[in-house]
Amino acid sequence: MKQLNGKLALVTGAAMGMGKAIAETLLAEGCRLALVDINPELLEETRQSLRRSGVCEAFVCDIANRDQVRKLATSVEHDLGSVNILVNNAGIVRAAPLLSLSDDDIERMIRINLTAQFWTCKAFLPGMAQAGPGHIVNMASAGGLLAIPSLTAYCASKFGVVGFSDALRQELKKARLPIGVTCVCPNTVNTGMFEGARTVRGTRILRPADVAAQVVRAIRRNQAVLGVPSFPVNVLTPLLKALLPVTVMDRINALMGMWHINDSWRGRGS
After folding, report:
1. Is the pTM of this model over 0.85?
2. Which end of the chain is more exposed for a tag (fewer CB within 10 A), N or C?
């Protein structure tokens, strides 16, 4: 089990939602925090609310911009030292049929949800390797294992995160670096990203604090894949996809209502 007390953790998308919940949980474990977000006002509000619980500093950065990410790494190193835990949490979604998605919507989802994780890992991994045992958390989604309509770009980005995490974990093992990788695949979390969408039959909306607790537990255990809830995401979905023909899986998705859950999606708005 990894010890987290005193470690420096960097969390992207930390101003609200899942990122804020993970930051709160890591602070409770004794970590020092580098909070990263593109929204300076919300980020400062979060820093003010969390600083009573421990050391946390705020860094404004557009993680989709690789030059900004490189500058971020320099700033964090200068102010706080080498990062031990990197949590790639930042993400966005727009739920709509492909022909209703603007080109900008598509590109932004790919850049923020997927490509940005390449930039943060490239920027922080050298320092992490020198600092000793560390960990990387890449937030994917249950939508990175099972795709549904109206989420083409979102699911593509999250499928990419799953593949990226799998390859990176093996690269670090091959290089004998003591840095673990956890890919997190939760069902819908109550953060506002999927506001207006309906839940799939037999599932429930997850609480950010509950998912954050499982993320921190996965870091401690060096767990490669974290599905939330575990059995449906880790076992049932991969098993059904492996055993059933595609046409049957499509029919199951339709019967469970997955084809229409995002028809009423609103998201967080502007």
Report:
1. yes
2. C
